Amino acid sequence: MINLLLLVPLAGFLACLLLKSSARLIALAASLVVLALSLTLISGVVDNPTRFSSVTDIRWITTPDIHYQVGVDGLSLWLVILTALLTPVAILAAWNSVSVKPHLFFGFLLLIELGVIGVFVSLDLFLYYVFWEITLVPVLFLIGMWGTDQPGVTRIQAAVKFFIYTMAGSVLMLAAIIYLYTKTGSLRYEIIQAEMGLVPAAALMPLFLAFFVAFAIKVPLFPLHTWLPDAYTAAPTPVTILLAGLLSKMGTYSLIRFGTALFPQQAQASAAWIAALAIIGILYGALVAISQPNMKRLAAYSSVSHLGFVVLGTFAFNAQGLDGAVYQMLNHGISTGALFLMIAYLEQRRQSLAIADYGGVAKIAPGMALMFMVVTLASVGLPTLGNFIGEFLILQGAAQSSFSWAVFASIGVILSACYMLWLYQRTFFGETPDEVRQQVPDLDTREWAAIVPLVVLMIWMGVSANGFLAPITAKSEAILKKPAVKAAVQAEVVR
């Protein structure tokens, strides 16, 4: 089934290139097929979330020993489904807004989906790296060709900055992968994990840092975040949905899968300063977001802040923190994807991202106001919505490691309420300018179809979290119980 998840978007991409006039329909159909296929993975993982299911292992290249090996477990299951969900949302968001070479635009969206799913399911490090790099090319072109120039930065500058940052991290990761292969004789994840004893002890910390930098850039983690505001703002808003909702999760997922699992002692030894960077990112992102006059730029810095929580939970090194980190990846993907989707709706109507160009939208577009309110409250972390569960677990896990971590991180929650509610108040209440009355109609059927599933999921994941958390918790416990991880945690406690 996983093979089809990778084959369908690839076939859809090629079909978009060949059947240019039907590219929108082809892209939407392919993405919906992928969504349906992804749901069939649930039963196999729920039955045994600690082991990889739907595994395919085919030798790809003999020398070096490279395998096409894919599988899914409790850590990657919901992230695959999240990818399959947000892709058709992004396609619907771009439906009427792309007039220049739409076949390339929608084809590139499918190529991003292929790369992201590939990262989440790859069990061979070379294959993982190939999919990691596949996401780079379409994003580069989507920003550079269809993006918009912003004050202080052009779309070309934003695209190049994104490319340089990502490539710098990728080169470090590739060097680390090659070194691991020379010592373990394999590129398969489970074999490398079992043979880490063959790697010289002096090389473990440099290897961990090489992987960490690559993943931290992709998250991004402060102070490696500077590409994000420019890229998120310059990119077409449907593309920003995928950047914020999916590509950032490649970094946070990889921190758990490869950072903490392959290098537990090094990750544990680095936990204090990484947690400090995460907390700085939480506070810095929130404070900068408050002062932003641009909707997308505000949401971009909000993403920096919220992803800091995910990193903090990961490096708390306990069950609550790790559960919260994975759950918050999902919640952030849904809520931030929905936030950029609503911003896209406003931008397409008013042709402006300046908050000052709006006001009183609730009077003329009550449906839009209602959906934006739910998204706002989810981003704030209101109880009964999914983000609350994730942030609560993260803060609980952080407090168990260091109470001061939880205290400082909780300030970010308060600040998020400030900038999100302020954004909503300035946009939807107050006097309604004549331009807004004329240019901002309420949501149409296509727009409702894109936003409603995301809102339903926010509520569902907030009031019925156990069903989503069960496979995550089982996998988290398995990771923490691995001898190397357990020994690293115990050593830190004793120290």
Please describe what this structure looks like.
The protein folds into two domains: 1-171 and 227-250, no CATH class; 270-495, no CATH class. The longest helix has 32 residues, at 319-350. Strands 1-2 form a two-stranded antiparallel sheet. It has 495 residues and is mainly alpha-helical. It is built from 24 helices and two strands. The chain starts with a helix and ends with a helix.
How many domains? 2
Shape: globular
| Beta strands, count | 2
- From the helix content, strand content and strand pairing, which structural class follows? mainly alpha
Averaged pLDDT: 88
Counting DSSP H or I runs of 4 or more residues, the number of helices is 24
What is Rg? Answer: 21 Å
Q: Strand order, main sheet: write it out.
A: 1-2
Unreliable runs, pLDDT <50, ≥5 residues?
none
What assembly state would you assign to the polypeptide chains in this entry?
A: single chain
Largest sheet: number of strands, sense, barrel closure: 2 strands, antiparallel
Helical content (DSSP H or I, runs of 4+)? over 70%
Strand content: under 5%
- Element-level helix/strand string: HHHEEHHHHHHHHHHHHHHHHHHHHH
Distance between the termini: 46 Å
